[in-house]
Amino acid sequence: MSRLRQSQAGTLESNDIIIIVAPLEEEAGMVVELQSLVLAQYGDQIRKVIEDTVKEQGIKDIYIKAVDRGALDCTVRARTLAALSRAGVALKEERIWS
Description:
The protein is an alpha+beta fold and 98 residues long. It has two helices and four strands, in the order βββαβα. The protein has a four-stranded mixed beta sheet. Strand 1 and strand 2 form a beta hairpin. Helix 1 crosses helix 2.
């Protein structure tokens, strides 16, 4: 994998989320900073979707800032993948149909 560069995807529109990714030093792990209008109700789920999506792509040392405005899980995943792609990650394909 090539070196990540800072990038972002998403908007601050209702039902969307901005995902900003940036590289961290080797062995720093994953740091997720989350701001959300529904943090108390859905913060754990939003964080899980982001973390699972990043782990599926094999990324370990990354800083992620997410500013949520009520996005559904599929939107959180799509924005995370878009930000990773823009950061230089060659995304792994997921086989949906068998």
